[in-house]
Write the C-alpha cells for this entry.
Amino acid sequence: MGAELRHAALEDAHAGLGAKLVEFGGWLMPLSYPSGTLHEHRACRTGAVVFDVSHLGTVRVEGPGALDQLQTALTNDLRKVAPGRAQYTHLLDDEGWVLDDIIVWWLDDETFDVMPNASNTDRVVAALGGADTTATRCILAVQGPEARERVAKFSEAAATVERFTVQRVDVLGTPCVVAGTGYTGEDGIEIAVPVEGAHAIWEALLQTGVEPAGLGARDTLRLEAGLPLHGHELGAGITPLQARLGWVVGWDKPDFRGKAALMAEKDRGVTRLLRGMIVDGRQPAREGSSIHADGHQVGVVTSGNFSPTLGTAIALGLISPTVAIGDAIHFDVRGKTLEGYVADLPFVEKRL
C-alpha cells in the first residue's frame, strides 16, 4: 500500500472549477483546468495565471544558530544576500549529487523558510532540523507579465515585492509572506498564506482576471525557460556542475556536505552537461530517450515536451561536453528516430 495522498486546502476550489486532479509528489493537485494546458501556458506568457503550489514544502528554521545551520548544510552562500531576500540553493549527498534544489526565504536575522520539493520535505527536515510547517499554509504563485498589475488591485504591498525579495505583508486582512520568486521565466510573486485565508485570496485573484493554471502548464513553462526539475535534471547521479549550476555553490565557504566531491569533479572536468535541444516537428523526445551524434550515443533526454511558444518540440538532456551548440543530433524514441539539434538556453527569453 502506498502512502495516503495529501490534500491541499484549496482542493475543493479546484474541483469546483473542473480541474483534473492528479497525484504529484504525494499530493492530489490540479494538472489542468477545462481551458487546457496550452491555453494556461499562453495565458501565463501574455497575461497572468495563478498556480496552487501548496504541495511544495516549507521548513521553518529559526534561532541564533539557524544561519550557521543552513550554511553548513546547503551549497549556496547566504552571506551573498541578507534578511529580506530569497536564494536558490542545493542540498547534496556525500557524492555531490543533488538530493534537492531549494529556495530559502530569509525572513529576518534568525528566521528562514526553506522551500523543498514536495517529496523531499522529510529529507530536508532530517538534514537541517527545523519544523515542517507545510500543513499550515497554501502557496499561490501568480505569474505572467500582468501578474503584479492584477495583484495590485487588492494588495499594492504584495504586488511591489521585488524579484528575489521576501516580505511579511498583510493581504486582505491575513498576514502572509510574499516572495518575488517563481518557476515560469515570467515575472511574478509567490504568496504563502495561512490556510484560513487561502480561499479569500484565491477568489480575489480570479476576480481580477488572473486565470487558474495547473501543473501541466507549469512544466511546459519551466521547460521553455530552461529551468531544471528535481527527479529529471537534478537528482541521484547528477551534480550541480553537470546541471550547469555551479553558480549555486559557495566555493569559498567552509566545508559543507558534498563539497569535496564537487571540488574533485571541478578539477577533473565533467563528463556530461545539461543542454537544450530543438526537435524537428511536434513529437517530443521524452525522458529516457537516447541522444546520438556522428553514429554514437552522446547522452540521454531528461525532459521533453511540445513548446506552445515555439510551435515545436523541445528537450533538456545530459550530453557529452564534446557536443556543441548547433550540432545536429537525433533521438531514439521507442524505435523511431527524431532529428534535431543542440540549442542555447533558455528556449524562450526570461522576462523578469
Summary: The mean pLDDT is 96. The first strand starts at residue 6 and ends at 7. The chain is about 20% helix and 35% strand.
